[in-house]
Every structure is written in C-alpha cells, then in structure tokens.
Design goal:
By secondary structure, this protein is an all-alpha fold. The protein has helices spanning 8-16, 29-44, 46-59, 69-82, 84-95, 100-108, 110-126.
Length: 136
Amino acid sequence: MFYAMKTKDEALLEIRGNSIGQIFETSTLEERFQNQTIRPILKFQNDLFVEVFKNYATKQKGVFFTLSPEKKMNYIETAIQRDIKFRNSLKGIVIGMFTISEYKEYIQNSSNLNKRMMNLLIERLKSQVQLFEEAA
C-alpha cells in the first residue's frame, strides 16, 4: 500500500487546528490572518509560551514572582513590548509555525501583524498569570 507523505504545510495546518474567532466577508486581511493563523498558533504553542516566559522571568532575577497580581500584568506587557530580543524570540516561535503561503502573506504586512501577534500573546499570558510560579 502506498501512503502519501504530507507536506510540512499540510502537517502544520492539521496540528494547529481551525480558525479561532469569526471571519466575515467584511473582515480585513489582517483580521483573517489573525483568526486563521495567529490565534491557532498561539493556542497550539501556549504551553511553550508559558515555559518561555517563566524562564525569562527567572533569568531577570526572579523579580516577577514577588510582584502583586496587578504588577505582574504590567511586567508581562512591559517585557514583551520593551525587550526586543525577548519579543523577537516569541515572534520566532509563532513564525516557525507558518506555512510558506502564510509567511508570504505575513511579510506583506509584518509590522501590523506583529502588533496583533504580540497584543494577543500579552493578553494570553496575562489571562494565565496564575500559572507563573517560580521555576524550580
């Protein structure tokens, strides 16, 4: 029996799952990309993002773990917005899950899509702040 190998792009789309959020005829290209590509990747990679953030916070002298919940929210936002190396690392985790056609679409409007990507990631991490305990 012959089994056709899936392409990398087919495999990526299969493991990531379907769109998250509604897409309408009136949706902009950015909204479509966000819901068809970015959101499913953020959900799929969620556990990795949690671990990456824990590691980042630990390497920053662990100050994060001593903060009040409200200050932890600010810390998450500030870390992702201001630490360029950290932000680029997070972007790489997302971009590495793009198909070739998604990447080609992404580079047409990377600046706006990066903003959407990081804002969604910030909200995702903030909503899980209770998972951030100091790494043992």
